[in-house]
Every structure is written in structure tokens, then in C-alpha cells.
Specification:
Blueprint (H helix, E strand, L loop, with lengths): L4 H29 L3 H27 L10 H16 L3 H33 L3 H23 L4
Helix pairs in contact: 1-2, 1-4, 2-5, 3-4, 4-5
Length: about 160
């Protein structure tokens, strides 16, 4: 039950954390599916960044005295389902790479939205830098990832 800004903050933190955990596996899968070398490298490098982001989020749970709990990312499940349906229908590998890149951009935007909400709540709650700084660092990485994903599909 969400009754306070803190409750919402913890919920959004859990959503982001579990999204990142699920992405660790997905990014390897996306890298293996890519036929474009740059796209494959993007997903492999991004997998490492995701692991670092998870490591940055874990101490925040301690700082707010909360547990990550269990939570499946419903939006990510929807993105994966849509990707799988499109990949099955795609007849030309370069089109499959566009599908993979679209998924990458969608995920980055989802992460960015969750981070913006977390940072807004952190500001309202006047949370300390030990909580805000890791979120801001992660936000900057996500923005960079989104820009890189855009560049990979420019013609």
C-alpha cells in the first residue's frame, strides 16, 4: 500500500532495481541476436553498465531501510513480448537489428522515467546526497545509453 512519498519512493526504487536485474540477462540475449557489430557491442557494454547500476541501487535500499523484495517488471515483459512477435515476422536481419535497437531505446526511456520520478521524490523528501548522487549518476548513464541507441539506427 502506498500511503506516503516514502512508500512511493521505495516502490519506484524496487521497480527500477528489478528492471535492471532482468536487463542483465536480456542484454546478453539481445547482443547474441544482433547482426550489426556496433549493436552487439552496445548491448555487451550496456550489460556491464547495468551491473554497475544494480550495485549502485542496492545501498539505497539500506539507506531508506527497505528491502528490494520481489517484483517483475510488467513494462519490460510487454516490451519483450512485442519484440519476440516482431522478430518472428522479420525476414531480413537488418530489420531485426532495428527491432533490437527499438527495444533498447524503449528500455532506456522506461529507466529514465523511473529515475526522474525517484529524483523528484528524493527532492521533495530532501533525501541526502548518499541517495541522490547514485540516482543522478545512473540517470546520466541512461541518457548516454539512450543517445547511443539512437545513433546506432541513424542512416
Amino acid at each position: 500500500m502506498i500511503e506516503s512519498e516514502r512508500d512511493l519512493f521505495v516502490r519506484k526504487l524496487r521497480e527500477l532495481y528489478h528492471l535492471e536485474r532482468e536487463l542483465e540477462d536480456l542484454q546478453t540475449e539481445l547482443a547474441e541476436a544482433a547482426t550489426d557489430e556496433d549493436l552487439e557491442e552496445f548491448y555487451m557494454a550496456h550489460s556491464e553498465t547495468t551491473t554497475e547500476q544494480i550495485g549502485r541501487l542496492e545501498p539505497i535500499f539500506d539507506a531508506v531501510e527497505a528491502d528490494p523484495g520481489e517484483l517483475e517488471s510488467a513494462p519490460l515483459a510487454g516490451f519483450r513480448e512485442e519484440r519476440e512477435a516482431l522478430v518472428e515476422d522479420v525476414q531480413q536481419p537488418p530489420l531485426g537489428d532495428l527491432v533490437e535497437a527499438e527495444l533498447g531505446r524503449s528500455i532506456e526511456r522506461l529507466e529514465l522515467t523511473k529515475l526522474e520520478t525517484l529524483l523528484e521524490l528524493a527532492d521533495r523528501m530532501q533525501l541526502p546526497d548518499e541517495i541522490v548522487d547514485p540516482l543522478e549518476t545512473t540517470e546520466a548513464e541512461v541518457e548516454t545509453g539512450l543517445e547511443r541507441a539512437r545513433e546506432l539506427t541513424e542512416i
